[in-house]
TrEMBL record:
N-acetyl glucosamine (GlcNAc) transferase that catalyzes the transfer of GlcNAc via a beta1->3 linkage from UDP-GlcNAc to the non-reducing terminal galactose (Gal) in the linearly growing chain of N- and O-linked keratan sulfate proteoglycans. Cooperates with B4GALT4 galactosyltransferase and CHST6 and CHST1 sulfotransferases to construct and elongate mono- and disulfated disaccharide units [->3Galbeta1->4(6-sulfoGlcNAcbeta)1->] and [->3(6-sulfoGalbeta)1->4(6-sulfoGlcNAcbeta)1->] within keratan sulfate polymer. The keyword Nucleus does not apply. This is Hexosyltransferase. InterPro entries: Glyco_trans_31. It is found in: Golgi apparatus membrane. Its EC number is 2.4.1.-. GO terms for cellular component: Golgi membrane. Keywords: Glycoprotein, Glycosyltransferase, Golgi apparatus, Membrane, Signal-anchor, Transferase, Transmembrane, Transmembrane helix. It is a single-pass type II membrane protein.
């Protein structure tokens, strides 16, 4: 019995020595393994291992998450573009702090105004807000035509159809065409965070959204006008022409290019569906109602319907300077007409811009005539599916028997009869 205890005791005493030997053995094996792997890698690199390394690097890159890529992309877009004049320019508004101006309450008739007009006047002095999404690279190089579309966050389906149809970025006969959408923030407080995340992902995919930190409302459409003009003057020194419109329009880019070529010698080009001597609407039930306290003149200055118009780049920069001299006005296209009046520039009315509808008679077959659309530059008020259907018809094997001029005359005469 005593021999058994002595044997167990000897094992216990010798255990540390066994453990030490085992550790040395494991360490030696590890060192040998490291040396073998190093030798193997050297041989691998010498026999095409660099391809495997590149493949692994690509696989690792593809596993980076969307949010990491988004941050990198946003960081890239913050880089200021390089101009021939070597001017470093950037969006210089970093704070959205803006309090109500109590002085406006002394304006005659203020107390009798509707709440939305009171709100507009209280904050009318808040002209510029920080940028949330910016793409100055859109104006890099020589851009012949920059297409700029007003939209709101929830209307992503409209933006998608435009990208699939007339809004594709392209180069035509060496002329570069770029695309941008103008947005504020969601007016739906409950869904605001969700809408913003979806918009961020949309911009991650397409990279064509300019967004500022003001709420998207009807009266704030004028803010989109002033913000774009400031943005354009900041970043777009080499853009020749601008098409600006809504996200529910049918556009023929080829007809735009043809018109611009024929008007290349026109100074201060500003063309669209122009209204002359339009009167302010005084009926409160109307969407475009303006009280005399905001505008007491009999007529508005000439202005183009905001559904779609063309202007040249140098004029856009002058319009920005003119806008700085005026108080903001709730209707954006009228406000732009006021800026043109300051510059003493008269907009050009062109029959191929139909921003107030094709015909007064909404039941007329001409409203759905693809040959008519084919001859137009802009036609307003098409929902996504209607726009897609008309685009496919116009770009099918379409045979039109009437010339564009005859179609215009037919529509003009029909409107006059109504």
């Amino acid at each position: 019995m005593s021999n058994k205890f002595e044997f167990i005791n000897s094992l216990i005493m010798s255990a540390p020595r066994h453990r030490w030997r085992m550790c040395k053995t494991v360490a030696l094996i590890f060192v040998v393994a490291v040396l073998m792997i190093s030798v193997f890698q050297r041989g691998l690199v010498g026999t095409g291992g660099d391809l495997q390394i590149e493949r692994n690097a690509r696989m690792q890159k593809e596993t980076i998450t969307y949010w990491k890529e988004k941050q990198d992309k946003l960081a890239e877009t913050r880089q200021e573009p390089v101009y021939e004049r070597d001017l470093a320019r950037t969006w210089d508004i970093t704070s959205a702090n803006c309090s109500a101006s109590t002085n406006v309450s002394s304006i005659e008739g203020f107390s009798a105004l509707e709440q939305n007009f009171k709100q507009f006047l209280l904050y009318r002095h808040c002209r510029y807000f920080p940028m949330i999404m910016n793409h100055p690279e859109k104006c890099s190089g020589d851009v012949h035509l920059l297409m700029v579309i007003k939209s709101i966050i929830s209307q992503h389906d409209r933006r998608e159809v435009i990208r699939q149809t007339w809004g594709k970025e392209q180069v035509v006969d060496g002329k570069k065409i770029k695309m941008l959408f103008l947005l504020g923030t969601s007016s739906n407080e409950e869904e605001k965070a969700n809408h913003q995340k979806l918009l961020e992902y949309e911009d991650y995919i397409y990279g064509d959204i300019l967004q500022w930190d003001f709420m998207d409302t009807f009266f704030n459409l004028t803010l989109k006008e002033t913000h774009f003009l400031k943005w354009f003057s900041t970043y777009c020194g080499n853009v020749r022409y601008i098409f600006k419109g809504d996200d529910d329009v049918f556009v023929s880019v080829m007809n735009i290019l043809e018109y611009l070529e024929s008007s290349k010698n026109t100074k201060d080009l500003f063309a669209g569906d122009v209204l002359f001597k339009a009167k302010p609407i005084r009926k409160k039930q109307n969407k475009y109602y303006i009280p005399p306290a905001l505008y007491n003149k009999t007529h508005y200055p000439p202005y183009a319907g905001g559904g779609g118009f063309l202007m040249d780049g140098p004029l856009a920069r002058r319009l920005y300077l003119a806008s700085e001299t005026l108080e903001l006005f709730p209707i954006d296209d009228v406000f732009l007409g006021m800026c043109l009046e300051v510059l003493q520039v008269t907009p050009i009315k062109h029959n191929a811009f139909k921003t107030f509808g094709l015909l007064k008679d909404k039941k007329s077959k001409l409203n759905n005539e693809p040959c008519f659309y084919k001859s137009m530059i802009v036609v307003h008020k098409l929902l996504p599916q209607a726009l897609l259907d008309m685009w496919r018809l116009v770009h099918s094997d379409l045979v039109c028997t009437l010339k564009p001029g005859l179609l215009w005359e037919a529509s003009k005469n029909l409107n006059q009869q109504l």
